[in-house]
């Protein structure tokens, strides 16, 4: 499967580490030089925990949809301002507060890979 391979040299990977309400995590995304997001990998919680399983499933679902042609804005709009724990102040200076892991993912995805006229 392509998800197990490292990103190609033509892809740009952006990795962010964070802590939300004491829960450490990492978000890695890859995009082509043209800005097309191809992979989302969100990790949080300890290995084998429910939270780790849920973030793995969420990452797989988003990546599958992106590769099928879904625009990243779909996920940004869907997860932005969702409310569940962990939530609160983050250690990420670009995303200082998140109402959930989904909200953090949406904000960071938008920050890392801006859409349309916001894209550099």
From TrEMBL:
Family indicated by similarity: Belongs to the ribonucleoside diphosphate reductase class-2 family.
Keywords, sorted A to Z: DNA synthesis, Nucleotide-binding
GO annotation, biological process: DNA biosynthetic process
Reactions accelerated catalytically: a 2'-deoxyribonucleoside 5'-diphosphate + [thioredoxin]-disulfide + H2O = a ribonucleoside 5'-diphosphate + [thioredoxin]-dithiol
Domain of life of the native organism: Bacteria
TSCPD domain segment(s): 23-110
Pfam families: TSCPD
EC annotation from Swiss-Prot or TrEMBL: 1.17.4.1
Protein name: ribonucleoside-diphosphate reductase
Claim: Transport is one of the keywords in the record: no
InterPro entries: TSCPD_dom
Molecular function GO terms recorded: nucleotide binding; ribonucleoside-diphosphate reductase activity, thioredoxin disulfide as acceptor
